[in-house]
Amino acid sequence: MTLAEKVLAVALSQEGVEEHPRGSNAGPEVNQYLKSVGLGPGYPWCMAFVYWCMQQATTALGVKNELIKTGGVLLQWRTTGMKKVQSIKSVTPGAIFIMEYGNGFGHTGFVISVDGNKVYTIEGNTNDQGSREGFTVAKRTRLATSFKGFLIP
Q1: pLDDT, tens only, 118-134
Q2: Domain named Peptidase C51: which ranges (predicted)?
Q3: Who has the most CB within 10 Å: 25, 65, 107, 138?
């Protein structure tokens, strides 16, 4: 199993995890995601979810986690040693998507698949509207034009 396959399997295994209570950026699993990047309950956790999934996958495979230990999406984009691409044509399942909203805000998760201009994802701290400040780990469908770039495990 490749790292991309393993990390995607880990992420998909978390589908349905929710904050308790909703809107708190906390809960048993969410707290573990946050702890993996050195944060306590109450912080936005999409990047922590990605880091936690990658840590689980790299540990299982006995390889190095190339992500930096941070809860910051855009800091990860700027400083990671992982391969970066911006063309949707280079994206494969298990890639980490990066979105930038301005003013230092971003969102991240994993690519499940790409179909034309649609990207199917699994992501933490999202909701039914696909917000970057949600309450659950869920699958989403996003437009290919929504992304700043992708990190390739």
Answers
A1: 999 999 999 877 666 78
A2: 41-125
A3: 107
